[in-house]
Specification:
- This protein has 248 residues and is of the alpha+beta class.
- It folds into four domains: 4-34; 45-99, no CATH class; 107-152, no CATH class; 157-239.
- 37% of the residues lie in helices and 10% in strands.
- The protein has nine helices and six strands, in the order H-H-H-E-E-H-E-E-H-H-H-H-E-E-H.
- It has helices spanning 4-7, 14-34, 49-54, 95-105, 123-126, 135-152, 157-165, 168-180, 226-231, and strands at residues 70-73, 80-83, 107-110, 117-120, 200-204, 221-225.
- A two-stranded antiparallel sheet has the order 1-2.
- A hairpin with a 6-residue loop joins strand 3 (107-110) and strand 4 (117-120).
- The longest helix is centred in the N-terminal third of the chain and has 21 residues, at 14-34.
- The protein is rod-shaped and about 150 Å long.
- The structure holds zinc ion (3 copies).
- One zinc ion (ZN) is lined by residues 111, 113-114, 116, 132-134, 137.
- One zinc ion (ZN) binds at residues 185, 187-188, 190, 224-225, 227-228.
């Protein structure tokens, strides 16, 4: 390092004092480095490295003072993390760990149709008896149950017969019989109109129950009013003496 004399600086001048202070500063710095200690530049020559080192790493700031937040342990991974002064109550280190923890501790069940995991409230199972993940799967489950029930309780003979009696095909047959007979009772000749309202039935001449092959045969049908229909031998479950012949 050059001396002030070599540079031609005179005592008492501004340049001289500036030079000297700079020289002292450099000497001081070098002495500190020689001891193996870090020199802190930002704090104008104060040696704060030791003080900083004494702080826990998460609370280290640029200066001597610690950061204002706290160190919390993550509830999911157990590792320490820094929580800022406005978030001192934080218990998770990250959003991902928060979601992961909640997933691990939430109530869940498997969809019985597609096997997907459903995260939900226990009340969904206890109160609603929920079994599926979505409306689509619920529809499939209901269809499956319906099919099982139908196999378990097949329709009885009577139900099957009633289905035929009230089918659209039978409606068509009934109408065809009425039209052929011109809406007139084939026994007593009663008709609607002129202040009279009577109920017409389409009767199977050879009974519906014993002649399945003739159920939709137009020739096996005849139009009868209710009164005459009741008098036939085969009406309902009754077995009366025939006041109306079975074949006209
Ligand atoms: Zn974590
Ligand atoms: Zn599903
Ligand atoms: Zn009649």
């Amino acid at each position: 390092m050059p001396t002030p004399k070599e540079l031609g600086l005179k005592r008492g001048t501004k340049e001289y004092s500036q030079f000297m202070s700079k020289q002292n500063y450099e000497r001081h710095k070098e002495a500190r480095r020689a001891k193996g200690k870090e020199y802190h530049f930002r704090t104008r020559g104060r040696f704060v490295a030791e003080k900083r080192a004494a702080l826990p790493p998460l609370l280290r700031s640029n200066g001597v003072k610690p950061r204002k937040g706290t160190i919390n342990a993550c509830k999911f991974c157990g590792q320490d993390f820094y929580a800022g002064p406005c978030h001192k109550d934080r218990i998770f280190c990250s959003k991902e760990h928060s979601i992961q923890w909640q997933k691990d501790h939430s109530f869940r069940f498997q969809c019985v149709i597609c096997d997907k995991t459903v995260f939900t409230q226990p009340a969904q199972m206890t109160a609603r008896n929920r079994k599926t993940c979505s409306k689509k799967c619920m529809g499939e489950l209901l269809a499956k149950r319906g099919e099982e029930n139908r196999l378990k309780n097949p329709p009885t003979e009577g139900v099957l017969r009633r289905r035929i009696r009230y089918s659209a095909k039978m409606d068509k047959w009934r109408k065809a019989v009425f039209e052929r007979d011109n809406y007139t009772c084939q026994c007593c000749g009663a008709r609607n109109g002129l202040g009279r309202a009577i109920t017409l039935n389409a009767d199977h001449i050879k009974p519906f129950a014993y002649h399945p092959e003739l159920r939709f045969d137009l020739d096996n049908g005849r139009t009868l009013c209710v009164e005459c229909h009741r008098k036939t031998e085969t009406w309902g479950q009754q077995r009366k003496s025939a006041s109306v012949p079975i074949s006209p």
